[in-house]
Structures are given as C-alpha cells and as structure tokens.
Amino acid sequence: MNQNLTIKDIFIYPIKSLGGIRVEEAYVEEKGLQYDRRWMLVTPDGNFISQRKLPQLALLQVVLAQDALLVFDKRNRSKQIRIPFDSTTGKTIQVQVWDDSMDAELVGNEFDFWFSKMLGTEVLLVRMPEKTKRPVDRKYAKNGETVSFADGMPYLIIGQSSLNDLNSKVSEKITMDRFRPNVVFSGGPAFFEDQMNFIKIGDIGFSVIKPCARCVMITVDQKSGEKGKEPLKTLAAYRSKNNKVLFGQNMVAMSFGKIQVGDPLLLMD
C-alpha cells in the first residue's frame, strides 16, 4: 500500500545538540546527512554535552555558510562566531558518546573559549575526522554502517501526521524541532513510519531499523531553552513500550546521493 507520501522537511544538526537547520536538499552519506553532527561540544575529559544537562544549548543556532558554520545566540545575534569547515588544530582526543569512544579533532582554542563563555562552563569543540569510524550497534547495522556523533543511528524519520496526533492531545502546541528528525514526510496516518521497513526517498534507499526511544530532551523548548514536562508526559501515556517512550523511526542509508524537499517517499516492501 503506497500512500501519497512526500518529503516535507529535511533537517541537519551540524553541532550535536545545538539548533538545527532546515534545508531544501542534502546529501545522504553513510554516517548521516552531510555536515550532520560532525561537530560536538565535550567536557575537558571528552564526554559529550547535550541539552539533557545544558538545555541552554538550544539557544545557540547554527547556520551553514559557504565554507563555514556560523553560530549565534538566538537572543542576541551580535554574539556569533564563524567556524571554517576545515578548521582544526591537528590534535586529537578521545571522546565519549554514550558507550562509544572514538577519536576527534580539537577545532581551536578560540572556539572553546567562545562556547565556554556562552555556556558558563568549560567545553571543547571537536570535529569528527573522516578516518574516525564509529560503528552502528551490530544489532541494528545492515552492512556494518558507521555513524557520526549522533546518539546512535545515522537517520531519524517522523511523519507530520504523528506530530499532529500528539498536538491533538496536549494543551500547548509542540513543534517538530523538539524531536530533531532528519526527514519529515507528509501524508499517511499518524505513526505510519512505524509500519515502514524499506523506503526510497527520490532515488535513495533507506532501511527503517527501529523506533526512536525519547528522553527528557524533548521537554526543552527550542525557542526559550526552558524545560517542562511535555510532550514526554503525554507521549508516555500512549506511546510507551517496555518502559521506553517511542516517537519516530531510526534508519540507515542503503544508497547515497541527494534528497530534497518535495521528493516522493515510496515503500519498497
């Protein structure tokens, strides 16, 4: 049963846990969309930092320039910094994302200083070099895929109907940026993504692997940086399985190339 499904939005999150960027098109790579979560803030001992501990990360917005990332404070755009794509000190450190350890490059002292000042705590900005291979959990990998600094999987897809369903149950409207998807599609019933196995977006194939388990991060308002109880409380009442709250589906890419807003989404099984 192929519904009339269309790609509505594509998002990338160049620096893990900072504000995401809606793009009209993006290149599908093994580790995730090009530029997606290739940079990350870590503690001085290399542990990743996210909105779970520092919700104010949501207030730092990233913009893709021609050859650099621009990062600015949503409340005061004059507080901004430019990070060239190729900026690196050439020094590597071991960093940790959940149970995974990997090599990352230190990007530069001036960036560490700026982010530390903005966040009020000492942090380092790191970049994932191409040679770093962080394997997807073997339980879920199809062809030994690797992943960026994302929590665990390279891609996340959510149907707009699923968010509409959630918003019919909460008092204040929840926006899609709470869930940090890479791909949002229109069409189909709520949670139609739960029924997908293999899909094509334009010419690019994906294997839909597993539901995405959600945490307190979805309670951070991406405009104010403040934590609340929703939508985790409402989702827990009707989207829980084995003590996990599920929203969206994780994927790996089966082929590589460009996807764009407006592409058809086809079910291949």
From TrEMBL:
UniProt-listed PROSITE patterns: MOSC (PS51340)
A Pfam family annotated for this UniProt entry: MOSC
Domain spans labelled MOSC: 123-268
Molecular function via GO: catalytic activity; molybdenum ion binding; pyridoxal phosphate binding
Organism domain of life: Bacteria
Official protein name in the record: MOSC domain protein
